[in-house]
Amino acid sequence: MRLEKAAVVLACMAVVIGIGSSAGPVKNMFQQLRTSGGMAVLKPIGDQRSELRSIIEAKAAEISSPPVDARVDRVWKAIPGYNGLKVDVEATYKGALLLPAGSEIKYIYRQTPPAVSLDDLGAQPIYRGNPGKPMVSLMINVAWGNEFIVPMLNIFDEEHVKATFFLDGSWLSKNRELAVEIQKRGHEIENHAYSHPNMSTLSRARAVMEIDKTKKLLKSSLGVDNRWFAPPSGDFDQETVKIARELGLKTVLWTVDTVDWRNPSPESVVAKITSKAEPGTLVLMHPTSSSSRALRGMIRGIKAKGLVLGTVSQTLSPERVLPGNVE
Predict the structure, then answer these.
(1) Number of Cβ atoms within 10 Å of the Cβ of 10
(2) Is pLDDT above 70 for 183?
(3) What does pTM read for this prediction?
(4) How far is CA 37 from CA 3, 34, 86, 109, 126, in A?
(5) Residue-wise over 88-127: b if at least 16 C-beta within 10 A, else e?
(6) Residue 70 phi/psi, 5° resolution?
(7) Mean pLDDT value of segment 119-139
(8) Is 262 exposed, middle or buried (0-12, 13-18, 19+ CB in 10 A)?
């Protein structure tokens, strides 16, 4: 009889203490009654909570990564920074207490920004993203090749990829409907000067006009707040980069070139881009027959290397590419 009364008392204590803890690790504490010398003994609540917290703290120490500052490289010039990553131990612990018994812990991550960003590097060209960020961007410079744009957009849709289209201003003034279609499909649209000049040969006044006219046209025609400038034919000098910066733009070149204007075979384009793609790579192409036919193969080859495809803004941002279970 006394044993029965003791069991009843313990059960009542468990109900009182465990109000609101009908699920999760706290529930487990009350399931761990064991018999010792004929008496039911409750495993201390504190022991279980301490064990749970220790597991979370160990995971936090394992995956913690410090932020990486943006820097100027001797070869690659401006290289973006990359956010650090850490587990929010307290938030993860509180969430874990509410999970059903046997559930996998859902870790809550926080990003920590670098002390030095691209903005702090001054007027520098950019050729690639941070080598620690497993993301690649496809850059399509558009001044001609209308017949290949929609087929390329269709492939992007089917492969669930967004790219960045750098538009020549004179092309945009004549092809607004096609530009709207690019925008409607969710792609980023940026500045490729107005009349496709060699920027290094221009007077300062003309260079300003080429960039600024297209910047204003992007805003008035498409509502785009222009951030990036891609010099036509990759031709520029330091004055070009300074002018773009004065107009609020960063100058972007490329890491790997398809050289699609030479009409290479699609197979050779796929092989070249797939073999050379690595974290931070910016791939240059145009709306040509070669790139249109090679596009699906390039996308799948890049993804097969465990790389994510994003826009130029996404690739050059310090934001981390996070695992799927991150909240």
Answers:
(1) 16
(2) yes
(3) 0.82
(4) 11, 10, 46, 46, 74
(5) bbebbbebbbebeeeeebebbbebeebebebeebebbbbb
(6) -65, 150
(7) 98
(8) exposed
